[in-house]
Structure formats: C-alpha cells, structure tokens
Amino acid sequence: METLKYCYKCKSKKLFDLFSNNKRNPDGRADECKECKRAMDRDYAARHREEARKKASDWYYANKNKPEYKLKAQKNLAKWRKANLDKHAAKENKRRASKLHATPPWLSKEQLQQIEIEYSLSKWCTEVMNTPYHVDHIVPLKGKTVCGLHVPWNLRVIPASANLSKGNRYVG
Questions:
Q1: Which residues pair with 5 in a beta bridge?
Q2: 93 in a domain, yes or no?
Q3: Considering the domain boundaries, does residue 66 fall inside one?
Q4: Pairing mode, if any, of strands 4-7 and 133-137?
Q5: Which structural domain range is residue 152 located in?
Q6: What is the pLDDT of residues 114-145, one digit of tens each?
Q7: In which region does residue 3 sit, left (phi positive, over 0), alpha (psi from -120 to 50) or beta (all else)?
Q8: How many domains does the chain have?
C-alpha cells in the first residue's frame, strides 16, 4: 500500500514520493509537496530577482581579478567546451553565419577593407595597451529589439570589459 502525506500548502494528501527528502522531519520528508515547493521557489525568485542580481554582481566584481577565480573560470569554460564540442561548435557557427548574413553584398572593397582594419586595430590596441580590446557592433547583429549590419559604420574598437558589460543590447 502506498503511503500518503498531507501537504500544508495545497491542503491535500499526496503520495509520499511526491515530497522531497528532509532529514529534520520525523518521517524524513518535507512538509510541502514538490509541486508546491517549486511554486514557492519561483515566487521567491521573482520577488528577490534584483537583490540576487546585485549580490551576484557585487561578488563577481569583488572576485573577478583574483587569480584563483580567473583560473577556475577558464578551467570550467575549457571543461564545458570539451564536454560539449557540438554545442560550442553550433554556437560559433551560428555567430559566424549571422555575421556573414549581416554583411550586405553591396559593400565596396574599400568598405570590406575598413572592416578588416577595425579588427587589426583591435589587435594592435590589445598589444599596445596590454588589455583586451574588442570590435563592437554598435547596433547588435541579433538584438532583441533591433538588428544591425556588419558594416564599417556599425563597428567600433572598445575595451573588452565595456563590450562584455554591454552584452547583446543596443546602447544608443
């Protein structure tokens, strides 16, 4: 016979297996069913979203320059890439394809050369300034509200930190 347990949230009796483990309770199960617990967690996360983002951001900026954190992040990324070669390749190919499709065929040779110059400038700035620089699309290639083109007048060389903090948003 299946054992039933009372959920204090939804006020119904459910199968014992529908409750999470909780060693503090005498029966070894939580007081609310898994379904109610998920709903409570979603509600809590929604109410505390900004607080959690601020806390995570503060922690990141306090720890990002610590060598052990950088090394751990690099190792985790390398480990993920190695374990998910297909996903990583798909992501890179998608980016490359969107960039290719965002380059209009009517660009002149001079304009295509200007694009190459922007990337060369980025590399040069990285070497000279001893800090990473990126070529940023002012209007993102695949933004939520607007999509830009891969053209010289939509490119600029900026510090990597500024580009990464901007993300895939249009900052007009």
A1: 14
A2: no
A3: no
A4: unpaired
A5: 106-172
A6: 988 998 999 999 999 999 999 998 888 877 78
A7: beta
A8: 2
